[in-house]
Amino acid sequence: MRLVFLGPPGVGKGTQAEDISLKEDIPHISSGNLLREDVEAKTEIGLKAKAYIEKGLLVPDELVVKIVVGKITTEYCKNGFILDGFPRNLSQAKILDETLNELGEKIDKVFYFTATEDIIIKRLAGRRICKSCGANYHETFMPPAKIMVCDKCGSELYQRKDDNPKTISERLRVYREQTEELIDYYKNNSELAEINCNGNISEIHKKIFKEFHSQSRDEREME
Ligand code: AMP
């Protein structure tokens, strides 16, 4: 399965992608995580990407594409992947399609996640992440048992630098201006399933699994 998880920052795509990845054994490829690893490791790409990430702007296509295409064309992703945070504009979507086309593959399904803006802002502002294992928490909606300590591995939690009110509003503006048009692109070029994420995590899980295991358009057409 080659899946794209599309939606605004903070809608919960990463948490859901992680869950499906574990349960269905499909690699979770998050462009944001890959970029942050490069920033942390101070690679050439990381050094160039850092300022864009901190301002809430999109990192230039040539940098992100290099990392993501490099990853999805490896042996690790040969049976599929869940792309989370990529593509984020039309030119990235076209490069992705061309890359898969050359491999004789295509995107099987796009999950489009939605939530109201006030929910998104609350989710981003309260998000806490484990420094060591990357587990996600929320200071009110999903707090760890011990303040700022990961339930899973006992490491310290942190707040992402770009989860501050100013950068959050910039990221949402960038999403509306550059990413939202992908909804129509995928409605026309792929199979798109809309998942309303205003509810709680377990309700959202159920909706995704139902969609995940529903017949694809290709399977229906073959019958
Ligand atoms: P995320 O973890 O998906 O919220 O991404 C964090 C930041 O990384 C974004 O605000 C962008 O600066 C950058 N980023 C992640 N994915 C992309 C992408 N596909 N294209 C450009 N920039 C990206």
Write the layout of secondary structure elements.
Blueprint: E1 2-6, H1 13-24, E2 28-30, H2 31-40, H3 44-55, H4 61-72, E3 81-84, H5 90-102, E4 109-114, H6 117-125, E5 127-130, E6 136-138, E7 157-158, H7 165-179, H8 182-189, E8 192-196, H9 201-213, H10 217-222
Parallel strand pairs: 1-3, 1-4, 2-3, 4-8
Antiparallel strand pairs: 5-6, 5-7
Helix pairs in contact: 2-3
The protein binds adenosine monophosphate.
Residues 9, 31-32, 35, 52-53, 56-59, 64, 85-86, 88, 92, 162, 171 line the site of adenosine monophosphate.
* Number of discrete domains: 2
Low-pLDDT residue spans: none
Largest sheet: 5 strands, parallel
Small-molecule binders? adenosine monophosphate
Q: The CATH topology of the largest domain, please?
A: Rossmann fold
User: Got a strand count?
Assistant: 8
The rounded Rg comes to 17 Å
Short synopsis of the structure:
With 223 residues, the chain is an alpha/beta fold. Helix content is 49%, strand content 14%.
List keywords for this structure.
2 domains, binds adenosine monophosphate, five-stranded parallel beta sheet, three-stranded antiparallel beta sheet, 49% helix, alpha/beta, 223 residues, 10 helices, globular, Rossmann fold, 14% strand
Describe the structure.
The protein is an alpha/beta fold. The protein has helices at 13-24, 31-40, 44-55, 61-72, 90-102, 117-125, 165-179, 182-189, 201-213, 217-222, and strands at residues 2-6, 28-30, 81-84, 109-114, 127-130, 136-138, 157-158, 192-196. It folds into two domains: 2-116 and 163-222, 3-Layer(aba) Sandwich (Rossmann fold); 127-162, no CATH class. The strands form two sheets. Strands 2-3-1-4-8 form a five-stranded parallel beta sheet, with helices on both faces. A three-stranded antiparallel beta sheet has the order 6-5-7. The chain contains ten helices and eight strands. Adenosine monophosphate binds at residues 9, 31-32, 35, 52-53, 56-59, 64, 85-86, 88, 92, 162, 171.
